[in-house]
Amino acid sequence: MDPKTVTKIPDWVWEFHGHTCPFMPIGYRMGQIAMRELDVKHIGDHGAFGLSEMGVGHPQTCMIDGFMAVTGCTYGKLMMERLNYGKVACILFVPGKGAVRVYLKSEFQDELGKQEFFVYRKKGIEPSQVPPDVVKKVVDLVLEASEASMFAVSRLPDFTFGRPKGSFAKMKCSTCGEYVFERYVRMVDGRPECIPCSDYTQSWVNVLKGVQ
Amino acid sequence: MDPKTVTKIPDWVWEFHGHTCPFMPIGYRMGQIAMRELDVKHIGDHGAFGLSEMGVGHPQTCMIDGFMAVTGCTYGKLMMERLNYGKVACILFVPGKGAVRVYLKSEFQDELGKQEFFVYRKKGIEPSQVPPDVVKKVVDLVLEASEASMFAVSRLPDFTFGRPKGSFAKMKCSTCGEYVFERYVRMVDGRPECIPCSDYTQSWVNVLKGVQ
């Protein structure tokens, strides 16, 4: 294997992710490909969106951390979101430049699934507790496999995504006294309240726990 | 100021976040406090949840990146989520150890809002384009202010949060042929499809764009 084609993940990305697994590097490679396709560099401020087709309750979501790290589309900057399709794909959308989707080929998913690493994971053994040589083997596989064997890349000409216009306006909840950004103020008996004080929280907790 | 009390943010956390702003360090400090309160270290694998009370369409969300980095509760590992309350607070929940909430005191929010940094931000100038001395002043403020002046810390005895049980089961969409984790398979005319092929996507896009 030509060493030039082996993807190198910076140490800090591993440190951010917290453990060594094959999915973070898959997301990192997806981000690299999407950035190349749209001709953009790592985005320090804002102006782009990463959308993962992952959801919850299944493996491989770790790829989102790699995608965030390489593109700069972080969750904290509101530039990363899950679409909850349960598919191993990421989209990079740069307004004015378009959107590109990178899917982990089904054949590669099949190949990956045969790795010994998953014998441990299916038993519920955490990545940091899997024998290092077993981890190394699966990580090397995803760092060394050719792009063509791993990824299907496509443009999404109609794709769009946006956020509501930002506002600095905030007010205090009339019950707890804490600040609330206006968008999230709720009215109870004619008084402004935060969502927890308004007791309108349960639906959100349910969304997070069960619906996705 | 006693230099021992000044919070030091590792370089890689700045690199992950992408620009220098005061919010990422606020989240970092919130995470440090919550971890100390629950007596946990940085979590490399899974087993804890970070919940931000932030939403979209307002400032200060960058704090989520600092909180993820210091706690190890990353979005990719499904350990971080927004509660969309529009409040400047983070919760760390460790099953078996409890939950702690850290709120950025209203008085400190008022103090922070007077900083020149926000004159630039309210004009839409990105953090990386704000004069460095202006950025340094506000970042130093949040790194050096005493914990007592900045944060209100409370236990949440009834707080709970969970994820659905994970499954490796997946099947192929009968239309596009791509793999879908079972939780997200939808039925159309008796055939299994992925959400995009099923045309059931629009509601999610709307949720992400408008409802939160």
Report on the architecture of this protein.
2 copies of one chain form a homodimer. In chain A, 36% of the residues lie in helices and 17% in strands. Chain A is globular. In chain A, strands 2-1-3-4-5 form a 5-stranded mixed beta sheet. A two-stranded antiparallel sheet of chain A has the order 6-7. In chain A, strands 8-9 form a two-stranded antiparallel ribbon. In chain A, a hairpin with a 2-residue loop joins β8 (186-188) and β9. Chain A has 212 residues and is of the alpha+beta class. Residues 205-212 of chain A have low confidence and may be disordered. Chains A and B meet through α1, α2, α3, β7 and α9 of A and α1, α2, α3, β7 and α9 of B.
Main structural class of chain A: alpha+beta
Rounded to an integer in angstroms, the radius of gyration calculated over CA atoms of chain A is 20 Å
Distance between the termini of chain A: 41 Å
Helix content of chain A: 25-40%
